[in-house]
Amino acid sequence: MSNPGQFIEARVVPIRPRAKGRPVGRSWKFSELLADDTVRARWEKVREYFFLRESTYDMTNRCNIRCDGCYYYEGDKQFARENRDPQAWRALMRAEKERGITYVVLAGAEPALASELLEVCYDEMPLGSIATNGVKFIPESVGYKIHISVWGDDETSLRIRRAKNLLDRQMKNYAGDDRAVFVYTYTRENIDETAGVVERLVANDCKVTFNVFSSPVGYTGPLRHDHGSLVATRRSMIELLERFPDQVLFSPYSAVAHTHAKGLHDLYKCSYPRMNSSTAIGLGRSFRQYRTDLDWDRSAACCVPDTDCPDCRHYASGSAVVTARLHRHAKDPEHFNAWLDYVDTYLAVWVVGYEKGANLQRCQSEPVPPPGFELIPNA
């Protein structure tokens, strides 16, 4: 989550040639992109959150399930000593505020197993989110957004995550909870299961968003996507968004950005320190990924450490990488509106109390490609 507003230019925005098959339009001033009242209102709505500055924190190296393709149990971070001292965490949160951090992402391995530390973080830094498997309930006194990972139906969860009746247990804990968003991760194997799982979640008053499995470094297993599965994933995302527009927190451009043949870094250039050597501005200057010992390593700092960067299509990465590229999308109304839909989606997923609006781009419309690229073919 970086500040896209720093890239706004009041002058005429130069146009690059559009993707093959799409006409090249004229240059647009930023003021012209805001001429429509609905678009201007959406812009004013999302720009109120440009103050968000994130870092991420591994709360514990313990977990109550063990999943194939788990990011946490790759690399050195899993071996860091676990600091369970609430006062040490309180001091860290206060120091983070001093250096300008306004939003925390609490993760790895299973943060619900460190509920006392979650309380401390929330006391000091009230904006944030928690990535959890949803097996253990996080107290309501922790008012962060809660992202509950879903990797398929119950049969798949048992096979991949070694957890019985996982979806029922997750819904029992978080159905109807305003903090909760169920994050369905598409893998190469579970695309056909998605509709049934989303139908169950919607029937139980749950909000849903989508993620795309992004392989950990060295992973070559069956969850890794190929061209065909990315095409099928995008089609599934759009269909479910069209069926459940109030419960599915997503946009057509989100589907395009996260299912392209190229990963997020190749499309948008990743802003996180691991792939960004600059310390002058944005995430390259401010982002840190703290391990359980409260130390961090800039060379590994990323929103999802130990991901294979060329394969990264992770929803958490996009929340910063795509949103930071306002200057590339402010080229014409269709790209700008698609970017607004994307930002509106990420805020609804990541910020408690933020209500997503109707997408400016309709599902039935021709998808907008990432600036400078063609769409991944439909078939």
Report on the structure:
- This protein is an alpha/beta fold and 379 residues long.
- The chain has a domain at 52-313: TIM Barrel, CATH 3.20.20.70.
- The chain has helices spanning 30-33, 37-47, 86-98, 115-124, 154-161, 166-174, 194-203, 227-243, 252-259, 264-268, 282-286, 315-321, 326-329, 333-350; strands at residues 12-13, 28-29, 54-58, 103-107, 128-132, 145-150, 180-186, 208-212, 289-290.
- The strands form 2 sheets. It has a 7-stranded parallel sheet, with helices on one face. Strands 1-2 form a two-stranded antiparallel ribbon.
- Helix 8 (227-243) packs antiparallel against helix 9 (252-259).
- Mean pLDDT is 91; it is low at 5-23.
How would you sum up this structure in a few lines?
By secondary structure, the chain is an alpha/beta fold. The chain has a domain at 52-313: TIM Barrel, CATH 3.20.20.
Topology:
Elements: E1 12-13, E2 28-29, H1 30-33, H2 37-47, E3 54-58, H3 86-98, E4 103-107, H4 115-124, E5 128-132, E6 145-150, H5 154-161, H6 166-174, E7 180-186, H7 194-203, E8 208-212, H8 227-243, H9 252-259, H10 264-268, H11 282-286, E9 289-290, H12 315-321, H13 326-329, H14 333-350
Parallel strand pairs: 3-4, 3-9, 4-5, 5-6, 6-7, 7-8
Antiparallel strand pairs: 1-2
Helix pairs in contact: 2-14, 3-4, 8-9
Whole-number mean pLDDT: 91
Question: How many H/I helices?
Answer: 14
> Order of helices and strands, N to C?
EEHHEHEHEEHHEHEHHHHEHHH
Distance between the termini: 33 Å
* Shape type: globular
Strand content: 5-15%
CA radius of gyration is: 20 Å
CATH topology name of one domain: TIM Barrel
Strand order of the largest sheet: 8-7-6-5-4-3-9
Q: Report the major sheet.
A: 7 strands, parallel
Alpha-beta content class? alpha/beta
Annotated CATH homologous superfamily of one domain: Aldolase class I
Work out the number of β strands: 9
- Identify low-pLDDT runs: 5-23
Give the class-level CATH name of one domain: Alpha Beta
Helix content, binned percent: 25-40%
